[in-house]
Amino acid sequence: MRGIDAARRWYESAGVPMLEREFGDVASRIAVGRAGHGSECFGYDDAVSRDHDYFTGFQLWITEEDERDFGFRLERACARLRKEFPPDEDTDIGSSELGDAEDGVTVIGDFYRRHLGFPGAPENWRQWLYTPDHAFAEAVNGAVFRDDLGVFSGIRDTILNGMPEDVRRKKIAARAVFMAQSGQYNYMRCLRHGEPGAAALALDEFVRNAAQMVFLLNRRFAPYYKWVFRAMRDLPKLGGLSVALTDLLTGCENDSMKLERIEAVCAEIAAELRAQGLSDCDDVYLEPHAFAVQSGIRDREIRALHIMEG
């Protein structure tokens, strides 16, 4: 059973009765679910995931006002629940030094601040542009089991659907120029210079930016790198490029074949840029597409940023 399903089952079998019994008058003010760090929050957990920082649990998100009113009492009840009614699949595993498991009671603003650096949805284009996409992905993954008040889910929905189009364009323009520079230009040049290590880095740079580009074209946030290919396979637009990008990193093709694969990936990206009305360039080389995308940004301050910024 996936971790998020085990969490929901434990919440429904033990958490719901506890909340109704001990917090019936305020239960409607408590948002419950599982989101944040961990493969189980993305639904990608498997047997390998259980070797560290893996547990069955759910989170309860409350406002600052409610934290003052009943937060301590709720925390004590949650701690007692795990002892008295442990989950059927109590998979609490010893944590690593870098582990950061999330469980129990959390103030809503603290949850988003922990992942994004600010206590809610971005309030300006700079927060949208410079916050890493994997941070946004962790802030909106998982599932919300209950949220009558709607505060937690309201922030979540704004993050999922509220990125300004000018910011998306700026990110896409940057990804396009990085793809052109690393894959279409510098990869073969590094090889001709007799620098295979630099060529490998150029290839890695190309793949990373291409993957992020695919997520942006789907209006989704790319997760932390180890889940990028897994998540890409589920995307409706260009999700199949996960195979080509994986082969570029792991395949045994010669250099010419890799260059052909790079150009094929760029051709599909260019076609999608045209299909979304982001560029009208016919070229397969992505650099002119980058400038075309950036020229369509309406906000003068964002449009004036360096083409590689974002």
Please characterize this protein's 3D structure.
Helix 3 (64-84) links the parallel strand 2 and strand 3. This protein is 58% helix and 5% strand. With 310 residues, the chain is mainly alpha-helical. Helix 4 packs antiparallel against helix 6 (133-140) and helix 11 (241-250) runs antiparallel to helix 12. It starts with a helix and ends in a 7-residue tail after the last helix. It has two domains: 3-161, no CATH class; 165-303. It has a four-stranded mixed β-sheet, with helices on both faces. The protein has helices spanning 3-22, 39-42, 64-84, 108-116, 125-130, 133-140, 151-161, 165-192, 196-217, 228-232, 241-250, 255-275, 286-295, 300-303, and strands at 31-34, 59-62, 104-107, 143-146. It has 14 helices and four strands.
Descriptors for this entry?
single chain; 310 residues; mainly alpha; 2 domains; 4-stranded mixed beta sheet; 14 helices
Task: Note the main sheet.
Answer: 4 strands, mixed
| Tally of structural domains | 2
Number of strand elements: 4
Identify the strand order in the major beta sheet.
3-2-1-4
Amino- and carboxy-terminal Cα gap: 39 Å
Poorly predicted ranges? none
Beta-strand percent range: 5-15%
Q: Mean of the pLDDT scores? A: 93
Shape assignment: elongated
Structural class: mainly alpha
- Helix/strand order: HEHEHEHHHEHHHHHHHH
- Which radius of gyration do the C-alpha atoms yield? 22 Å
Number of helices: 14
User: Which percent range fits the helix content?
Assistant: 55-70%
